[in-house]
C-alpha cells in the first residue's frame, strides 16, 4: 500500500487550513493525505480524526480529514498571524520532512508560510520554505520548478534583482541547475531521457553578441558540453518564442535564466493549477503556487485548486519515483 502524503499546515492565520479542508472534501480517499496541525486550529466544517500513526491516514482519509496533532503556542485568528505559532509552523514542516525521508509519508506537500511571523517568533534564519527544507535534508543545492499539465519551468536565478542576474548567472550555477532538473525529471516524473529547452538571457538570445554576450560566453558552452555527453538539450533559445504550443511540444521542461522569464509563461497559461516543486531533495516536495492570502483568510472564497493540484502531483511523482526505483 502506498504511503499517504504529509501536508504541513503552514501559517495558521492564512488560507492553508481552510484549503486543506476543502481539498479533503474533493479528494478524500483518491489522494490519501494527512494534515500536520494543531487540531484546535482546523475548521470543523468536515469530520476530523486525530491520528497516532500517520500510516492510518490511508484508511481514515476516506471518511474524515486525518490530522496528526501538533501543539501550537497560540490561537489561529484569520488574517492575524501570531508569532507564538512560529515554532509550531517550523516543527510541522520538520516533522513532515522526517516522515517523507523515512518513508512513512510518500511525499511532503507544504501549505504557505509567512516569513515575517516566523522571524518575529523564532528569528527564522532562512530566506524561505525551500532553504529550510534543504537545511533539514542536509543538501546544498536545490532547484525550484513550477509545473502544470501544460508546462514545467525552472528559473536558474530566483529572488534577486534583475540587475544582479548577469553576475550571479555563472556556468557552474547553470550546469548544476540543469543536472538537478534532469535528475528530477528522470527520478520523480518518470521521464527517462528528458528534453530540456534552455532560454537565453538577452533578447533574441543575444543575437550573436549584438544584445549582450552572456548567451555566447556562459550559456552556450554549458549546453554544448552537455550535448556532447548525450543530453537532449536545445538552446540558448530566444525566450519570446519558447512558450507557444508548438514550441512546448518539443521539450519536457524549460530552464530559464531569471524569475519572471520562467514564471510569467506558466502563470499566464495555467494560473490556478501551477504547482511549486522542489528538486534536489531526498524526498518529494510540492506546494501550491500562492501565499497566505491574509486579506481573504476565513472568508471562504479562497480556491483550493492549486493545493489540490499540488497533492495530485505529489501522488503522481511518488508513483513515478517508485517505478523508477523498481527498474
Automatic annotation (TrEMBL):
Residues binding a divalent metal cation: 159, 204, 259
Protein name (Swiss-Prot/TrEMBL): 4-hydroxythreonine-4-phosphate dehydrogenase
EC number: 1.1.1.262
Record key words, sorted: Cobalt, Cytoplasm, Magnesium, Metal-binding, NAD, NADP, Oxidoreductase, Pyridoxine biosynthesis, Zinc
Record text on subunit structure and interactions: Homodimer.
Further information: The active site is located at the dimer interface.
Cofactor: Zn(2+); Mg(2+); Co(2+)
A Pfam family recorded for this sequence: PdxA
Catalytic activity, as annotated: 4-(phosphooxy)-L-threonine + NAD(+) = 3-amino-2-oxopropyl phosphate + CO2 + NADH
Gene Ontology MF term list: 4-hydroxythreonine-4-phosphate dehydrogenase activity; cobalt ion binding; magnesium ion binding; NAD binding; zinc ion binding
Coiled-coil region(s): none
Protein encoded by which gene: pdxA
Signal peptide from the UniProt entry: none
Annotated Gene Ontology cellular component terms: cytoplasm
Binding site residues for substrate: 129-130, 267, 276, 285
Pathway: Cofactor biosynthesis; pyridoxine 5'-phosphate biosynthesis; pyridoxine 5'-phosphate from D-erythrose 4-phosphate: step 4/5
Top EC class, one word: oxidoreductase
Annotated NCBIfam families: pdxA (TIGR00557), PRK05312.1 (NF003699)
Family membership noted in the UniProt record: Belongs to the PdxA family.
Co-factor binding details: Binds 1 divalent metal cation per subunit. Can use ions such as Zn(2+), Mg(2+) or Co(2+).
Localization annotation: Cytoplasm
InterPro entries hit by this protein: PdxA, PdxA_fam
Record GO biological process: pyridoxal phosphate biosynthetic process; pyridoxine biosynthetic process
Main function: Catalyzes the NAD(P)-dependent oxidation of 4-(phosphooxy)-L-threonine (HTP) into 2-amino-3-oxo-4-(phosphooxy)butyric acid which spontaneously decarboxylates to form 3-amino-2-oxopropyl phosphate (AHAP).
Source species: Shimia thalassica
